[in-house]
Amino acid sequence: MKRTLLRAAIFVAVLLVIYGLGVACEAGFTEYVQRIVLLAGINVILAVGLNLINGTTGQFSIGHAGFMAVGAYGAAYVGVQLAPVAHRALGTGAVSNAFSFNLALLAGALFAGLSGLIVGLPSLRLRGDYLAVVTLGFGEIIRILFNNATFLGAATGYFGDDPSGLPAYTTFFWVYAWVALIVVLIHNLTFSQTGRSLTAIREDEIAAEAMATPTTRLKVTAFAISAATAGIAGGLFAHMQAGVRPEDFRFEKSIDMIVMIIVGGLGSISGAILGGIFVAVSLELMRDLQQYRLVLYALLLIVIMIVRPQGLLGRRELYQLFRKRKAGSGLESSR
Amino acid sequence: MRSLRRTFISGICLAAFGAVGCKKSATSTSAGGSTAADRATEIIIGHYASMTGSTAHFGQDTDRGIRLALVEANAKGGVLGKKLRLVTLDDRGDSAEAANAVNRLIDVEKVSAVLGEVASSLSLAGGRVAQRRKIPMISPTSTNPKVTEVGDYVFRVCFIDPFQGKVMATFAHDYLKLTKIAILRDVKNDYSIGLADAFKASFLQMSGNVVAEQAYSQNDTDFSAQVTAIRGTGAQAIFVPGYYSEVGSIARTAARLGLKIPLLGGDGWDSPDLFTIGGDAINGSYFSDHFAPDVATDKAKRFVASFTTEYGQAPTGLGALGYEAAEVLVDAIARAGKVEPTAIRDAIAHTKDFEGVTGKITMDAHRNPLKSAVVLKIEGGKAKFETSIAP
Q1: Most exposed of A22, A268, B49, B369 (fewest Cβ within 10 Å)?
Q2: Per-residue model confidence as pLDDT tens digits over A126-144
Q3: Spatial separation of the C-alpha atoms in residues A118 and B209, rounded to whole Å
Q4: Does the ipTM exceed 0.90?
Q5: Under an 8 A CB cutoff, do A294 and B52 touch?
Q6: Which residue of chain B has the CA closest to A166?
Q7: Which residues, 6+ apart, have CB-to-CB distance to A252 below 8 Å?
């Protein structure tokens, strides 16, 4: 009982802190900086979600932009359909907006999770490179489908019925509330019994199977969860951009996500967070270089990979850095 | 081994920082924020474009045109006693970056107006930011009607798609003096449908006759049924507002079946491949476009000459429209009398009979230009300027 109360108090406190930071951010920063802060949050969701399947479970997906696209289009479309219903039921205030926005995000996550399931079921029986190729193909199929779906605006993209585009619901509060929720959920999953089984699959799939770990089921579950988080990020992205267009979910977007988790440290949640922020901020910081910034960006990645091939944090979490490394902490890879 | 690695890494770092240093000192138009002192003597204009990525040539061509227009304006002493400075930001053809770039232009570079983008979906992303921040934006080449519907701060200097249907109807009726026309449209393509509808409405209004309406779908290869149906109707020309690959095949089919009438079309024909696919069969046909390098006005001749001297190659349509967008903006700032976004917006909205390189421009109430289009005639595997049609 006491524990529940404490948890509720922490939950409310976190939301209040996020709200406070949001107010401060809006007051203290230009819109340009605010946008980058929001993009960083969305990247963090993408990276933490992708890290679950690529890092923790060790199954390499390079088509996550496809799931992000499904979530973005799903949330945008459902949001537009839902808004009048919510307005009739709850009035036109912030409550009704928040309600339809979050429901739309969940719908987007559901669509993305389902497509993750559909892709994952047949392809996660494959290993290594084969899975990568299948996910890559899927990502392209999704983009091309949206490119031709006339009711979703085809190549121009989907912007809702209003000429000014989708409502700009994506605020600091909602982005970081979702970041907090997803980071906590993925963290708890990673350090649960299921999470240990996922790590076991990464380390040695045959040994894991010999220990009666249901490898395929776990892999597909992790894949679907990862896809669903990408869907949430997509929904937030759509409502920040005031629209979705298929060209934003090209193969390069999947590569961006992989860069986030590799730079941060494959298999580390705090690493994924750092990597997500790195990708959002570094390109903008290099604006002064104009088109040469992409050259420097690539150089930066090369340097990071030479100096720290295991990524900024390796497989450790940030809070473990300050602790003395204990032998056999369970998280450290044997390498 | 270790020291070797160190040397390698420091080498890379040095090269990178060297690149930063050179870049900053080499160009006067580099980004990096502007101070209040700059703004007292300069008018800063932003341009966001895909300078890298798969559509990099769009952004680079447009940027050349804009740059040329501003250099020429500065050579004449600038505007309102101030020099113009262009800040170009790259968006990699990505809509998140396009919105970032417009925000940065406004917040960091403190621009008075924004030019961009080529692709309509990127103009929509950037235009929403410009509209919300109340900074006027002119898109040089986004033809999708939705772009300027974003709000009253978003303009364009190119005509929208359906306008070409009206242009070709006027051309067929008044210039070629035709009265019986067949229409062959691509039913899977919004662009083609829009042009065909606009053509039909205008042509009927001029009391012309549409004697046949046939349809095909993109990627069809056999058009003999449609061409045969048109052959029996006594049509004097066929309006085919599709893309160049099908148009080329249609021209070949018509020639094979002995139908010797010209085809008419829009800027979807504008590709060198049209001449390879269509061969001799496409000679004698006409299509409308934004700009022709051999256009006859003095203004256009001067532009083509100075563009060619500056960059060593003839301007594309994108370069011409970029130049035109910058010129319309400079003209509006001069008429506004002060460097203030709302005043500049009002001045752009009141642009009337402005003599641009691609024709006379008047902004309508929906912030789209009323301007003339050029009609090109295909002769000997080349498109030549034929006439320009006023709205």
Answers
A1: A22
A2: 776 788 888 889 888 988 8
A3: 54
A4: no
A5: yes
A6: B128
A7: A65
